[in-house]
Every structure is written in structure tokens, then in C-alpha cells.
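Sequence only, no structure available. Ideas?
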Amino acid sequence: MAVDTAAPADRRSWLALYTLCAGTLMIVLDGSVVTVALPTIGRELDFSQSNLAWLVNAYMIAFGGLLLISGRLGDLLGRKRLFLSGIALFTAASLLCALATTQGVLIAARFIQGVGGAMASAVTLGMIVTMFPRPRETAKAIGIFSFVAAAGGSIGVIAGGVLTEAAGWNSIFFINVPIGAVILIAALRIFAPDRGLGIRAGADLVGALLVTSGLMLFVYSINRIESDGIGSARTLGFGGLATALLIGFVWRQARARTPLLPLRIFRSRYTSGSNAVMVLFVAGLFGFQFLLALYLQSVAGYSSARTGLAYLPGPIVIAVISLGCSAKLITRFGPRAVLVAGMVATTIALALLGRLPVDASYAVDVLPSVILLGVGAGLALPAVIGLAMSGATPADSGLASGLVNTTQQVGGALGVAVLAALAGSRSDSLLRDGKSAAEAVTDGYRLAYLVAAALMVLGIVLAAAVLRTPEAAAQPGPADADAPDAEEAGIPAPQTNA
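Reply:
I predicted one. C-alpha cells follow.
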């Protein structure tokens, strides 16, 4: 067993972690809170259906498009500086959203929110793994972060329904202002100063333009799938242009003297493999949250508040698993085994929803899947995030953090768009064949859930094949003396020449 030479995290590090998680929770909540409030905003500001979609699209395009570059800017300029700037911008944009009286102002403010959210979110994981060098503490810290990231969406559905009904749609944005102010004050007092590599270490403006425009167009094309169809000229055109820009970015980074995003990080199979697995897992998880909300409201007749309460067991289970035992399980069995177990639980949950009846009973047909998905997320997310971050050097931890967040956003957007498109296509076909609306819609959701379960199975196979523990980690020696407790925690040591 390797000798543990790293100092244990002190009280200040744990307070910094809670501050980072508070910022993450505020940003994660915002997405689902807004979704619940969309019908009310549309009525009061007279949005058309297509313009209303831009309240989501504007945020997602900025957020998803800027995560990767924001992570690298954290490495170059300092992660503390970027987090503070992002929270400040997000808070100011939230106030602008709350005060907006026109469609244009609200959409623009949502875009600015996305920019601030990307800046703060992109560096969070990089700061966490830097503050907690001991593998046991890393696993515990990532478990806490994973709970916030996984449960925040469901909590947002509940909070959005309650706030919108009790105090109006403006309140979902106003509430971010005092929360953001507290986070800023705490971060200024608690976070230790850090110095980045300097902007000259990645002064590649052409690369920055290529990756930002490519990711923004890619997110936009994903968001158009549901309305335009996956095979439409617009979807394929924007998707093709986005792909060309991203290929150009990779070509540029392979040849630039000071690349913005060094490609060496992708040589680690833990980084590349974990992010590929995460796309599949998050696609199924986000697809579940989106489709179940539609089913409960459009077929089962639930109100928005009751729909939110239907999700409540999920965050509770995620909290018990992520905060109570995920770190111990990862230490005992290794992250790959815990990841696979979590994905198996999620596969079973999605398969059960694949038999959802029109007149479903919540206790019999829905609740078991909600609980199993909570178990799956509580186990899988801390494990896959830990593996994804293990392949980064300290100098690239911001980049690795931004990549993990980008993967989550792209995987979630793809899952929602593709599964919703499949469900809609199946429902339309059944309606033409004379099925009732409830039967057709439910059958479309069943198909989408079974496809999501198939994606999980593919992720399990990929995790088992790619995320193997190397012999060096199984037999520690002088070469891994800088990887304290790596064997015992089951987490690969960070790559020094990834």
C-alpha cells in the first residue's frame, strides 16, 4: 500500500466545498425552475410557443457552448477568479430576468445567465480535486457534489411549482439574488488565492472562436430536433456545420504552439472513457426526468406542484446514497464496480417504465422506478465523475472539469431531444392508426424508455471494457508514490503525463 503523504483537508477546505456546492445548486436549480414556470411566463408576457422555447435555448446555448473554454480559462487565469466572476454575472443576470417586462430583455438576460453559469460551473470540479488530494476525501467530496448536481434538477421542479404558484414567475429569479450575494461573500472569505498558468500558455484566439461557435451551434441543433425532426435540413445543416467547426478546432489544437485546450488530456482512457460513459448515462437520466414530467401532467393529469412532489423520493434516495455510502463503496470495491452497479439499477428502472400503462398507479408503476433511479444516480455519478477527473494533471484540472460539465450538458440535451423525438414520432404514427391520444402518447413514452435502457446497457459494456484498473494501481510501488491511498480507494492516480 502506498504511503499517504498528502495532508488531510482542513475545515477551510470543507467550507469551500459547501460554498462551491451552493453555487452549483443555484445554477442547477435555475434550469428546472424555469421549465416549470414557462407556461406562466408565456401567458403574462404574451410569448408565442416558438419564442418561449428561446428562454431555454438561449440559456443552454451559452451554458453548453462556453463550459469547455471556461474550464481552460480557469487554468489560465485562476479558478477562484473565474468562479467569482461567473457567480457575480449569474446573480446580476437573475436580477435582470426578474425585472424584465419584455420578451427581448428576458431572453437576453437568460443568455447572460448561461454565460455566468458556465464560468462558475466549469471550474468547480477542478477546485474540488485540488482541495482534496487524498483519494478517500476526494471520493467523499465528489459524492457531495454529485448529490447536488443530480438532485438539484428534481428539487428545482418542486421549488419552481411552489414559487410560481405562491409568488409569481419573477420570484424564481429574485431568489437567486440574495443566494448569489451570500455565495460571493463566502467565497471571497474562504477560498484560498490561486494563480493560473497565465493567458500566454493558451493564447489561441482562433481555437477559442472555433470551439465556442462549434459547441453553441451543436447545442442549438440538438434543441431543434424536437420541433424540426432529427432528419430535417435545418437540424442536419446546423449539426454538420457544428461538426466541421469542432473538427477544425481539434486540428488547430494539434498544431498550435500554445493550444487553448491541450489534447494530451484525451490520451487518458479514464478521461475519454468516463466522458463517453457519462454521455450515455446522463442521456437516459435526463430523458427520464423530462418524459416522466410530461406523462404525469399530460396523461395522468397531475398539476405542476404534484408533479414536483412525485419526484421527491428521488433526491432523498440520492442524498442517502451519495452522502452516506458512495465514498465508502468506491473505497471498498473501486469506482468501476460502483459505476456499473449504478447503471444496472438505472437500466432496471427504465425497463420498468417501458411497461407503463395509461392508467398508471404512482405507487405501483412510477415510485419503484423513481427510487431505483435515485439509487443509480447516487452510485454512478460520483464514480464516473471521479474517474473522469483522475486522468487530469493539476495544471489541466480546470479543463477536465469543463469537459465533464460539457459532457453532462451535451448528453442531457441529446437524451431529451432524441428520446422526445422518438416518443413523438411513435405517438403520431399510432394516432394515425386510430389509437386514442392517451394510448398513443403513453406508447411513445414506453418506446423512449426502452431506448434509454438500451443506452444504459451500452454504457455498462463500455465501462466494463474501457475503465479497467491498470496493473500499476493494483501493485503500487515507487512509481505511484505520489498517489496516496490510490490502491485502497480504487481511484486511479492522476496522470502526470496524460
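The longest helix spans residues 397-432.
Hope that gets you unstuck.
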